[in-house]
Amino acid sequence: MKAFWHDLRSHLRTDFRPDLYVATVLWAAILLAVNFSLDLEDTYIDSFQEKPLWTVLYFGLYATAYYVSVWLWTHFHSRSDIWRNRKFWLRSTFALICYSFYAGFYGHNKWSQELFNGQIYVFAYYCLHNLQSLLTIVLPLYLFYKFADPYPTNFYGMAPKRKGLVLYLQLLALMIPLITLASFQPDFLQSYPTYRDTNANEFFGVPEWLTALIYELCYGWDFVPTELLFRGFLVIGMSRVLGRGAVLPMVVWYCSIHFGRPLGEAVSSLFGGYLLGVLALSTRSIWGGLLIHIGIAWGMEIAAFLQNARS
């Protein structure tokens, strides 16, 4: 834990300004208030599902969240030169296009309908929904890394590193009692496990634990592109342009991708995103974030499975 507090203090000494942080929190609060009072994402943006405008609206939402946050950072740190930096525009625009395409992608719906004539549609839909990021995020980022990034280094933190590993394990261990307590709540069991019996095991003639395992692996995978883009590309990669200023704008954008979730989850993403961003910047690796993200997700799944087995 000492290393964590050292890294956090080091980051704050360089980046923290009360006016900047207050302004950023207010901006995030405005975004949260607008979304949850108007139900912006679920009611309006998602009403254009499967239409080209769906992706465009997501781009508008994410670009607004991100660029206003960047403006706040450049304003309070007197770094107007950032707006004239081509590398900043190249990286930020590319990231926004990738994630907006990912958020508005619906090809997996058609693929699921066509796979085995739709006989395992629900199972295929949820698995392919989690895997489509290979096409919409991971592949584009890899191509950018190979052919367009002037500062290629270990694919935006994908190389495993030991630094911070013990800390991440400690943070994950702290979550186990919280997950256990949450698993006794009725609303928790209404949402978890996310795996549902789809009869896919009967179609394939295999035990249900096997189809559940396949689903859970796909479910866990979906956290990889999230960490790769937000903590990898937008923090480790963008730090070449913004330095430590890469963290705050990432956090606000990261919060906005949770607008379709409960308010508490969206708010907590601000704190979690900030800590994971600082740690990724310090360790130059996203593996810690992956460990925590996937560990918590699978922990909630396991807790729910165990609770259902008891009842």
Task: Describe the protein in words.
By secondary structure, this protein is mainly α. It has one domain. 77% of the residues lie in helices and 0% in strands. The protein has 18 helices and no strands. The chain has helices spanning 2-15, 18-38, 40-44, 52-76, 86-103, 107-114, 121-131, 133-147, 154-157, 165-182, 186-191, 200-204, 208-221, 223-237, 239-242, 247-256, 263-283, 287-310. It is globular.
Weakly predicted, low-confidence segments:
none
The helix-and-strand class reads mainly alpha
Overall pLDDT confidence = 91
Question: What is the distance, rounded to the nearest whole angstrom, between the alpha carbons of the first and last residues?
Answer: 38 Å
How large, in whole angstroms, is the Cα Rg?
20 Å
Order of helices and strands: HHHHHHHHHHHHHHHHHH
Strand content: under 5%
The profile of the biggest β sheet is: none
Can you count the helices? 18
| Total domains | 1
Number of strands: 0
- Coarse morphology: globular
Helix proportion range: over 70%
Features:
18 helices, transmembrane, 311 residues, Rce1/LyrA-like_dom, mainly alpha, single chain
Write a brief caption for the model.
The protein has helices spanning 2-15, 18-38, 40-44, 52-76, 86-103, 107-114, 121-131, 133-147, 154-157, 165-182, 186-191, 200-204, 208-221, 223-237, 239-242, 247-256, 263-283, 287-310. With 311 residues, it is mostly helical.
